[in-house]
């Protein structure tokens, strides 16, 4: 929708719940979008909500979602800690207000499904914030799949090597706990890239994963590192490695290889900055040199959130247009639920030691034959190093 069309349409009244770190991205976005007005903000911290209203000259500062909804809203942005999303979304849906919810949609799959169902039943749009889909480079990668440059996507690799310091986890009491944060690097950081993976490779059939805590164990109970293998219903395969125990941060790299043999790499470095796309294809030169990794790549949270503002704006603009046009937002509550389901499957697999299956994985041409005397049949320890033949040969 053009700015002129937005100006001519009736103004949309917006409320923001939660006035913490990420609320600025929402407030600035609506302020910049023609035809939307943030009429109220809400936070259980009354000093914080008053301060936010004063900073942005927002007419109403209230301390409950119910009071915010009483202002008569068209759209509500949910920027509270994850476990509180469900209650706000259900209230908003019942009030007939369209909802844009920060990621993760929830920490609980049943809650996420309730939220999707409530919004569908009440005929309101539900969008979930995955603003990295709105990087021009992320959209260009999607286009390289759609226009056949990559062919059918067959392999994905995601590397999320980020740095967080103890203060990040200590700043907010809800961070780093299973009850309130719902998880660690998977739930809070990697979920963005899990969403990109599902956008590129489609429906996940099976997940096998493991988690551990290597650096932050003194002050968090959730994982700071995770690895997973994902199989897709298309037959595609992917691996994911994610950690907040790296320093310096190496940012994020997502590689998608297609059936043409071409590989696209999306790189976010430093964390929070626009993704950059490199495509390696036979007969074509790389679009752009890969990012050079240097020391000094650790970025503080405020800088990361600030760098995300243009992409929040792009997604919020898409959501506003969907509300105005009665369409479907680019990232829906169902997308948010699917991303959550994938990461919860990594936790389940880590707990049980077994893969989690959602759907059949098509038998490929490369089915390994059964062998006798395989590792799976025996729990015998590896032979000691000194009797390993290859080590002897090196002496
Ligand atoms: N899309 C992104 O890249 C991105 C980045 C950062 C945070 N987030 C998400 O945004 C959400 C908030 O994160 P944050 O870093 O801004 O958190 P925060 O702790 O800085 O702010 C949360 C605010 O919500 C308030 N609050 C808590 N419960 C409330 C309730 N029931 N009603 C009203 N207010 C309530 C708190 O007082 C606090 O001011 C999280 O779900 C987080 O994952 C997304």
TrEMBL record:
Q: What keyword terms does UniProt attach to this protein?
A: NAD
Keyword Cytoplasm listed? The answer is no
Q: Which SUPFAM superfamilies match?
A: Glyceraldehyde-3-phosphate dehydrogenase-like, C-terminal domain, NAD(P)-binding Rossmann-fold domains
For the region Disordered, give the residue spans.
367-395
**Domain of life of the organism encoding this protein:** Bacteria
The reply on keyword NAD is yes
* Location of the Gfo/Idh/MocA-like oxidoreductase N-terminal domain: 12-128
- GFO/IDH/MocA-like oxidoreductase domain segment(s): 140-262
> Which molecular-function annotations from GO does this UniProt entry contain?
nucleotide binding
The record's annotation in InterPro entries points to:
Gfo/Idh/MocA-like_OxRdtase_N, Gfo/Idh/MocA_Oxidoreductase, GFO_IDH_MocA-like_dom, NAD(P)-bd_dom_sf
Q: Name one Pfam family in it.
A: GFO_IDH_MocA_C3
Q: What is this protein called?
A: Gfo/Idh/MocA family oxidoreductase
